[in-house]
């Protein structure tokens, strides 16, 4: 066995196995086995392809295996490399993609030249790589089995409500259908006026005419979508974030757990509601039907750390920007449009149905969030315009997308009001507009659209300054006569690593 470990390049497939297994372990509970298996096969296939190319260059299988493994290590652990450099060399020059890519490529070229010149077989290196990866895989497999037998506790928590919650289901309450319609990055009219002198009174007038109450000074509690949704769906602030200024992929994973097992979903279920999920997040027993692009969910929780995904998120290379690749890349954006259309139709269909059980319908629309697919007249914008805005997120395009968003929003609200007249409608944005390149005051990132409709038009509980964390506390108090106290309104600025 020892001799085999010195001669057989098991580390070529083992590096892929370790990377995927470790990703599944770190993101326990979110990556289905079949998805992980497909990803593993793809990575092993990529490794074998690189191994074949390496053999053509070196004409020796032993040295080709080392070169292929070096390339895959750089591919898999590029994000980890950045974190190490950030820790020990905090200057931005040493942690930028330009420097790190150049350093990595020079290192790989150095390895290639060294392997090209030498005639050695490296039995000790084979032994080290094979043994190390086998040990790591066995350890991770053991931890994974342990988690399957004894599921871990989420390091993030929203326990403040749980500790004092002694409420019971309301047997005499009317229990109307509740529609939670969330339009991503929809800023409040007050914020639009103050920040851009943009008049969004047409939407406000429409909502008031329909009997809505507008919380004019509403604020989200977090400026990143998953954290804002985790907070509103648990009616509590998120505890346990180590560094709000350096949000990591693991923080996202833990936040998705909070969303999936949220208190709001649990309470609606306890009141006898059927939960309908037309959002971009998984809910307990209700997986998302959305195409997930910007969220690192399922296997994206693993792939988000690779070189390819890092370049996909941050690269502005000549290849992408000027040689036509953008016309293929931008087509991916149309999946946002498809998702929005499917959810709009699904929610409208819910309003048409008459069922014995009340329903809580959560729909999450990716508008007016980037990409800005249509102009103010509803015309499809050019691929080139949309792609270039990936790097700038201009406020002008955001503002021009609002009339189109308002038109679709108003049509949906009218359909619900006409076909499900006794329903409660919560119309919200998860946070305000986040400029990527303009230096906006941070407060604007929290000022979100927030309008509510109750059939009895009783809005005595709704303060114009209510923040998102109290949204469903007020809803439950009003609908089911619970006595949830309101918590202090605060805004927590988060920044991705």
Verbal overview:
Residues 336-435 form the Sulfatase N-terminal domain. This protein has 497 residues and is mainly alpha-helical. The chain has two domains: 2-149, no CATH class; 177-480, 3-Layer(aba) Sandwich (Alkaline Phosphatase, subunit A), CATH 3.40.720. The chain has helices at residues 2-7, 11-26, 33-58, 61-76, 78-88, 97-117, 123-149, 159-164, 189-196, 201-209, 225-232, 249-260, 263-270, 300-303, 307-314, 318-322, 326-329, 334-352, 383-388, 395-419, 471-480; strands spanning 178-183, 213-214, 274-278, 359-365, 424-428, 450-453. It has a six-stranded mixed sheet with strand order 2-6-5-1-4-3, with helices on both faces. Helix 2 (11-26) packs parallel to helix 4. The protein is elongated and about 85 Å long. The model is unreliable at 293-297 and 316-320 (pLDDT under 50).
CATH superfamily of the largest domain: Alkaline Phosphatase, subunit A
* Arithmetic mean pLDDT: 87
Count the helices. How many? 21
* Global structural class: mainly alpha
Numbering strands along the chain, what is their spatial order in the largest sheet? Answer: 2-6-5-1-4-3
* Overall spatial form: elongated
Q: What is the CATH level 1 assignment of the largest domain?
A: Alpha Beta
Strand proportion, as a percent range, falls in: 5-15%
User: Rg, please?
Assistant: 26 Å
CATH topology of the largest domain: Alkaline Phosphatase, subunit A
What gap, in angstroms, lies between the N and C termini? 43 Å
- The name of the CATH architecture of the largest domain is 3-Layer(aba) Sandwich
The secondary-structure element order is HHHHHHHHEHHEHHHEHHHHHEHHEEH
- Low-confidence spans: pLDDT under 50, at least 5 residues? 293-297, 316-320
| Helix content class | 40-55%
How would a textbook summarize the main sheet? Answer: 6 strands, mixed
Tally of strands: 6
The figure for the number of domains is 2
Keywords: Membrane, Transmembrane, Transmembrane helix
Organism: Puia dinghuensis
InterPro entries: Alkaline_phosphatase_core_sf, Sulfatase_N
Transmembrane segments: 7-25, 37-58, 65-86, 98-115, 127-150
């Amino acid at each position: 066995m020892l001799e085999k470990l010195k001669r057989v390049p098991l580390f070529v497939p083992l590096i892929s196995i370790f990377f995927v297994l470790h990703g599944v372990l770190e993101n326990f509970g979110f990556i289905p086995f079949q998805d992980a298996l497909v990803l593993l096969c793809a990575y092993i296939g990529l490794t074998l392809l690189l191994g074949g190319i390496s053999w053509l260059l070196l004409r020796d299988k032993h040295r080709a295996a080392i070169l292929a493994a070096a390339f895959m290590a750089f591919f898999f652990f590029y994000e980890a490399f950045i974190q190490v450099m950030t820790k020990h060399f905090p200057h931005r020059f040493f942690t930028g993609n330009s420097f790190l890519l150049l350093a990595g490529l020079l290192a790989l070229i150095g390895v290639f030249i060294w392997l090209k010149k030498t005639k050695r077989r490296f039995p000790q290196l084979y032994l080290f790589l094979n043994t190390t990866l086998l040990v790591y895989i066995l350890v991770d497999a053991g931890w994974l089995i342990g988690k399957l037998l004894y599921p871990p506790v989420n390091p993030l928590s929203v326990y403040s409500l749980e500790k004092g919650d002694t409420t019971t289901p309301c047997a005499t309450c009317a229990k109307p259908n509740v529609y939670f319609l969330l339009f991503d990055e929809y800023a409040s009219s007050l914020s639009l006026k103050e920040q851009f002198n943009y008049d969004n009174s047409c939407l406000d007038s429409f909502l008031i005419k329909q009997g809505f109450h507008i919380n004019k000074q509403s604020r989200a509690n977090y400026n990143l979508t998953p954290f804002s949704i985790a907070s509103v769906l648990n009616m509590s602030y998120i505890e346990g974030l180590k560094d709000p200024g350096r949000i990591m992929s693991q923080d996202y994973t833990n936040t998705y757990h909070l969303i999936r097992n949220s208190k709001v979903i649990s309470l609606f279920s306890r009141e006898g509601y059927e939960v309908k999920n037309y959002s971009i997040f998984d809910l307990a027993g209700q997986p998302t039907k959305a195409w997930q692009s910007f969220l690192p969910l399922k296997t994206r929780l693993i792939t988000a750390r690779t070189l390819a995904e890092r370049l996909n998120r941050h690269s502005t290379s000549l290849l992408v920007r000027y040689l036509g690749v953008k016309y293929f890349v931008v087509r991916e954006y149309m999946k946002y449009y498809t998702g929005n259309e499917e959810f709009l139709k699904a929610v409208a269909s819910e309003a048409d149905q008459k069922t014995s059980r009340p329903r809580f319908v959560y729909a999450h629309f990716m508008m007016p969030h980037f990409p800005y697919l249509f102009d103010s007249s509803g015309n499809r914008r050019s691929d080139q315009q949309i792609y270039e805005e990936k790097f700038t997120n201009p406020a002008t395009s955001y503002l021009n997308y609002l009339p189109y968003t308002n038109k679709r929003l108003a049509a949906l609200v009218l359909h619900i009001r006409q076909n499900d007249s006794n329903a409660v409608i919560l119309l919200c944005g998860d946070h305000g507009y986040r400029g990527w390149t303009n230096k906006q005051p941070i407060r604007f990132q929290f000022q979100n659209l927030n309008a509510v409709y109750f059939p009895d038009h009783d809005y005595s509980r709704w303060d114009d300054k209510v923040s998102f964390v109290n949204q469903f506390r007020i809803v439950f108090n009003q609908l089911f006569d619970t006595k949830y106290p309101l918590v202090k309104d605060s805004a927590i600025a988060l920044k991705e690593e």
